Amino acid sequence: MASKTTGKIILAAAAFGLSATTMGWAQERSISIELNDASNVDGACRLVFVAVNKSGVVLDKTSYDVVTFDATGKVGKSLTFQFGRLPVGKTKVVQFDLPGQACDTISRLLVNDISECSVDGKASDTCIDALATTTRTTIEFGL
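and the corresponding structure tokens:
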């Protein structure tokens, strides 16, 4: 009887360890993009992003289809943000100016889909499947 109980405990511990390892892998294997700043510059809203590729693969080309929302939740502009090449472990800062748009008129940025994502010269879903978003601004940013 004790051996069956011991076996169940070992099996449960192994399952928990596998689950924790899988969760750790999912957290480590990511492409994190942070909306770091949003400021009005020369009649445009300048958005500054910090991207870190922790996916485990070099991303040759990375572009996202992003949609703006106004304060009432109404869909605004559809934009393409090109992050370019993202080497593994590299932190990259990119900025995009939205001409004629004040930052305080944007309540949310939605990453709608990938526009372009290539790994080893081939199209990949890694850029959206591994994407994790955060913001340091009052603008909501996410999937």
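(Above: one complete record from the training split.) The longest strand covers residues 30-41.
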